[in-house]
Design goal:
The complex is a heterodimer.
Chain A lengths: L1 H14 L28 H12 L5 H6 L3 H15 L1
Helix pairs in contact in A: 1-2, 1-4
Chain B lengths: L4 E9 L6 H10 L4 E3 L1 H5 L6 E3 L5 H5 L4 H4 L5 H16 L14 E7 L4 H12 L10 H5 L3 H10 L5 E2 L7 H14 L5 E8 L3 H9 L30 E9 H6 L6 E10 L13 H14 L9 E3 L8 H12 L8 E3 L2 H4 L6 H15 L1 E2 L10 H4 L12 E2 L4 E8 L3 E8 L4
Parallel strand pairs in B: 4-5, 4-6, 9-10, 9-13
Antiparallel strand pairs in B: 1-7, 1-8, 2-3, 6-7, 8-14, 11-12, 13-14
Helix pairs in contact in B: 5-8, 9-15, 12-13
Classes of the chains: A mainly alpha, B alpha/beta.
Chain lengths: ~80, ~425
């Protein structure tokens, strides 16, 4: 249940960065941010900041480099939240 | 002899009118955009009045995508995008298809300094050791060419896309740069204009120089008094103006509406020699600029029907009038009509030239001359040179054929452009 909530929150963040011709319905767990969702690579840093604000965590440079797909992002969020607790 | 160049689109985001119809109506009726700003009072500004376009979030959202809106804090960029896209649309032009830009359309859109509020935000983050939290648009919103870059992307222009900067001359200089590029055949359409940020961080330096009026905080509408004996300094302003310049053949081919023709003009500098300095113009250079503008545009001195001056409402206004009088060899009742729109919206700094060029061109297309505000007490040195009838206080019907528009800027730089009513 918690996983689903996090996924929905993440989708909500991603939504604004999608180009006009990609709808939020096309976002799946396996989606690659740049290659499949066509998100401008410059905006990945903004997604990271939004993730930090939404989940109240802090991502390291290595985390950012690993964050290529929606699934990667969820895994990083999961790991950070576990460390926090 | 280069190609003929005409104006086919106008856009504006000014303190007294955030779009072309509102701006036109305000100029006709003499509506002021100068207001008291509590923010300036709270910061102990001596001058607490300013000209600033009033925009709602809903209005801004019409011009920017939600993603562009995110973290957008560069007010000049907002004004510039509004004025620029309005002008483009007014010219009846669409945006480029997804895969290919308009190779023959360019952008020359100037500014003095861009995104000051965004820069302030960034400075606080950097000083707190939080550089990683600046986000992806801190650079785009604060680089001077951010404005031409945003407009270039929105419209899809593939010709020269650049930003010029020459203080308060910027907008008028841009019109001439665009004119030259089209006249020489290097582009067939250029969106030109300029924008200037609002707020205390832009205006503070001028307040510190004590060149802004201090006694009008309770009477904002009366604060900007070009050509008057009681002129007490310029009222700081902000906003943007934009013009689409196009080769006559391109405009004809697509049946575009033509506001006026750009006949040419001149750009120069006084080199901060003689009485010229960083902040004051060398009169010899001003006169040469006007004379060369006439020569370049094959305009006789007697053909100039009206002047839209730089006339900021400082003690230098009589000097400017004297320079026009000497350069045109005209005085008394033979002097052209002269006006300054700054009485209604203040001195919009880098945006001044473009906003005032838009107003000047409207005088040609509307066959009206817009009245001067706040100069009932004409400066005696001006009255000695120019007959009062040449300085209209109220808007009146008149069909000028030639209007000369000049702007002067810090650094002792000048620009003068000649607009002419369009005839086949």
């Amino acid at each position: 249940m918690q996983d689903e909530q996090r996924y929905q929150k993440l989708k909500e963040i991603i939504k604004i960065y999608l180009p006009e011709d990609v709808s939020v319905e096309q976002v799946g767990q396996e989606s690659h941010f740049i290659e499949e969702l066509n998100i401008n690579s410059a905006n990945l840093v903004d997604i990271v900041l939004d993730v930090e604000d939404t989940f109240d965590i802090m991502l390291e440079n290595e985390d950012m480099e690993q964050m290529q797909t929606v699934q990667d992002a969820l895994a990083i969020i999961d790991k950070k939240l576990q460390h926090k607790n | 002899m280069g190609k003929r160049v005409v104006i086919t689109g106008l856009g504006v985001c000014a303190p007294n009118g955030i779009n072309l119809p509102l701006f036109l109506s305000a100029l006709k009726k003499g509506d002021s955009g100068i207001r008291f700003h509590q923010e300036l009072a709270d910061l102990n500004f001596a001058c607490q009045v300013a000209g600033k376009p009033i925009l709602t979030n809903e209005y801004i959202n019409r011009y920017f995508t939600p993603l562009q809106r995110k973290g957008l804090a560069a007010s000049g960029l907002i004004y510039g995008v509004i004025a620029g896209t309005d002008a483009w649309k007014d010219a009846g032009l669409g945006i480029a298809p997804k895969e290919t830009p308009f190779w023959d359309s360019g952008i020359i859109f100037g500014t003095g300094i861009l995104g000051v509020d965004k820069f302030r935000e960034s400075i606080h983050l950097v000083d707190a050791g939080d550089t990683r939290r600046l986000g992806s648009t801190a650079v785009l919103q604060t680089m001077a060419s951010g404005i031409s870059a945003y407009l270039g992307g929105i419209l899809g222009c593939g010709n020269q896309v650049t930003t010029n900067s020459s203080a308060c001359t910027t907008g008028t200089e841009g019109v001439l740069m665009a004119y030259e590029r089209i006249a020489s055949g290097k582009a067939n359409k250029i969106l030109t204009g300029s924008c200037s940020d609002s707020g205390p961080y832009v205006w503070g330096g001028f307040d510190a120089m004590r060149i802004l009026p201090r006694r009008y905080n309770d009477r904002p509408v009366q604060a900007s008094r070009p050509m008057s004996a009681s002129a007490a300094g310029f009222v700081p302003g902000s906003g943007a103006g934009a013009l689409v310049l196009e080769s006559l053949e391109s405009a004809r081919e697509r049946g575009a509406k033509i506001y006026a023709e750009v006949k040419g003009g001149s750009i120069n500098s006084g080199g901060q020699r003689a009485e010229g300095s960083m902040t004051a113009p060398n009169s010899d250079a001003v006169r040469r600029c006007i004379e060369e503008a006439l020569k370049a545009s094959a305009t006789e001195k007697d053909e100039v029907d009206a002047i839209n001056g730089h006339l900021t409402a400082t003690a230098k206004d009589p000097v400017e009038i004297r320079n026009w009088s000497m350069a045109l060899e005209r005085s008394g009742s033979r002097f052209p009509y002269v006006n300054s729109f700054k009485g209604l919206f203040g001195h919009c700094l880098a945006a001044a030239g473009s906003i005032e060029c838009v107003g000047s061109v409207l005088q040609l297309s509307e066959a009206q001359l817009f009245g001067n505000a706040n100069c009932d007490d004409l400066h005696p040195e001006i009255a000695a040179l120019v007959d009062e009838s040449r300085i209209p206080r109220k808007t009146f019907a008149y069909t000028p054929k030639v209007i000369a528009k000049a702007s002067f800027g810090f650094g002792d730089v000048n620009a003068c452009v000649i607009f002419k009513a369009y005839k086949d």
